[in-house]
Write a structure and sequence with these properties.
120 residues; PH-domain like; 4-stranded antiparallel β-sheet; 7 strands
Amino acid sequence: MCEGTRFQRVKKGGEQARNQYRYVKLHNNHKTIYVGDWNNEKSIPTIEDLEPRLYVADIKEIRTGTNCDFLKEYKKEFQQNHARFAFSLVGENDSLLNLVAPDQQSFNYWVINKFDADLE
């Protein structure tokens, strides 16, 4: 998680935006998540290239799959094809960050490994 993950950006219609990514990294202190647009497929941004987006302590819940409200904005086909990798980091009253992981391993890193332990 500290190395970061590149998430494909998705257009409102549900199709993936070509060569447009959102890069998400957990700071080495494990207290802050940094996020930023990153369109270079061949390089990895440093933490200085990204903006602090949210504090891990502010995450109250993690919603996955069809429980993610943001999926309702997309077409049914997108929902069916991507729900298993979708997740929302939810704060006190609303979603703080909505993402669709590129694969099962990335999903597990962001949903199962770190946050389950921190939210208990």
